[in-house]
Amino acid sequence: MKKVFAILFTVFIGISCENHAEKSSEKKCPENTYWSFEGRDDQATGGIKMIPIETPKGTFNVWTKRIGNNPAIKVLLLHGGPGMTHEIYESFDGFFPQEGIEYYYYDQLGSYYSDQPEDLSLWDTARFVEEVEQVRKALDLTNDNFYLFGQSWGGILALEYALKYQDNLKGLIISNMVPSIPDYMKYNEEVLAPQLPKEVLDKIMQYEAAEDYGNQEYLDLIVQHYYPKHVIRLPPEKWPNSLNRGFSHLNPDVYVTMQGPSEFGVKGDATLKNWDVKDKLNTITVPTLSIGAQYDTMDPKQMEWLANEVQNGRYLHCPNGSHLSQYDDKEHFFPGLVSFIKDVDTGAFPKEK
């Protein structure tokens, strides 16, 4: 029985490769099939590569891991935070492989699986853009196959990369990130915060005013009341293990430098506090998917506006989702994401009106 199954599986993979080759700019699936490492230079490490990155402060290594083989579709995943890890994307393992999508986990410099230098000057958006470009070159991603996915802070990084290097992209995905931090702050203060129980909001604001961001009661209020409404719509005790590991591996130096010490917005002298690229979006011509969610910390209307502001965009709305809609609205998130990638791959991508 096992032998029969193996034969059928091999036949199925072969048929899938043939069908994909016809639709993907005459590219062919590798003979070694989607899961094979045969003939790859990362075979001995199971797809993991430590990529050397040149910075103004020296050379450091960042961690990447490849899943699958598809010469026509390669997706690089940019995690949020800043200072989070690739672990928040482990849910992609349940959806991308069966679609034949090759994808790359990647811990940015300073994140848990990569080098973690202590020089705070490295936590700069422009430097991160150059890091992504070096990773792209090391992984041999080209405008024939390179899709860049960024969520939250990763969305900021993906937008900044596209504004400088969009000629290297085949597709761009901005997930759960608006193009303006000041607009995000306004939405948080005027729309989201008032939805909290008054006594909870008053207590949070007391800690915010005192800048007592490390107070355990403050953190508990955020995790128990704000996160389950707008970050991941599950009670904390039901959060997936991958997310818990990601939170436990967060690098606070990177996070606080760029995002600030508050869990309730971008505060203090955080480097991202005034970030805004709204007036530059119309220069982006590469096919772009913007993903918003009904209960997100980011205004979904702004995400829809972003999709219409770029020259070749599509908006995907997750009606049941929040900031991490790959977990709490996977029923809309993944089909819409896969559909965009495949539409671009086959040349069927239209700008939806």
UniProtKB/TrEMBL annotation:
Per the record's keyword annotation, is Hydrolase included, yes or no? yes
Q: Name one GO biological process term.
A: proteolysis
Query: Residues in domain AB hydrolase-1?
Result: 75-329
Matching Pfam families, A to Z?
Abhydrolase_1 (PF00561)
Can you name one GO molecular function term for this protein?
peptidase activity
Q: Which GO terms describe its cellular component?
A: membrane
Which UniProt keywords are given for this protein, alphabetically ordered? Hydrolase
What NCBIfam families does the database record attribute to this sequence?
pro_imino_pep_2 (TIGR01250)
* UniProt protein name: Proline iminopeptidase-family hydrolase
Organism (species): Halomarinibacterium sedimenti
Organism lineage reads as: Bacteria, Pseudomonadati, Bacteroidota, Flavobacteriia, Flavobacteriales
